[in-house]
Amino acid sequence: DMAELLKIKREFEEFQKEYCCRNREAEENREKENQAATQIQSWFRGCKVRAYLSHLHKKAIIIQKIWRGFTARAHVRQMVKAAYFIMKMNFYEEMAVRIQRRWRGFFVRKHIHNFYARKKYMEGLVMKNELVRRELDQLEELQKRERDCLDMVKEHTAKVYQAQRLHHLLSTKQCPGVFNSPFRPAPHEMELLLRQVKYQAPTRLASRGKACLLGIPSSTSSSFPATLGSPLIKTSRTYSSRPILPPIGNKKQQVMMVKTLAIKDINK
């Protein structure tokens, strides 16, 4: 027993020595080991945090991918619905335009622009046009005849008026007139007209009044009154049956005449 006790005591002393040595070594290496442990912990924690962040990043990517896919599919579904709605509306509008075009064409052809009614109207219009053209042609011919007749009357009136003014040139039994030349085989037209009309002295236009200016014959005028185209209307002079006397001289001329007569009497 003593041997075992000594052995245990010896082992205990060795253990104490070993413990002291190791404590001393531990105290000596405490700072290095602390720094090494801190560095290892920081590295480990960094790796752990980076791994966790990588895990979170991957999960966030997955979540974003799923969410973006969901929103994109929803947007595409909305676009498809809108495109389908627009396609249906375009189709309905095109069909409505076709239906309206057919119906309006039928309605217009039936009630507004009826072909047979239009044809009948055009035939009636052609007949009316021909009738109006014939009436206008007749009216034009009538007006032309009236103008020709009026021109003939004016010409005859002018000739009669000229014959009345030149009545003193009428031929007599003793002396042939200007218009009845002996070298002519037949008398001139004016000569025949002079034989038909009678001489009429010119009268004042004022005595005739407005009737003569308008071409209406008066009681003192001839059977062929002067018209607007006759020379009687164009002239500005007035005619009178009384002879035109020379103007009366002034007092100086009368005095000179008296002196001249007195000198002649004295000389006699």
Automatic annotation (TrEMBL):
Coiled coil: none annotated. SMART domains: IQ (SM00015). The keyword Transmembrane helix does not apply. Pfam families: IQ. Transmembrane segments: none annotated. It comes from the Eukaryota. Keywords: Repeat. The keyword Signal does not apply. This is Spermatogenesis associated 17. It comes from Oreochromis niloticus (Nile tilapia).
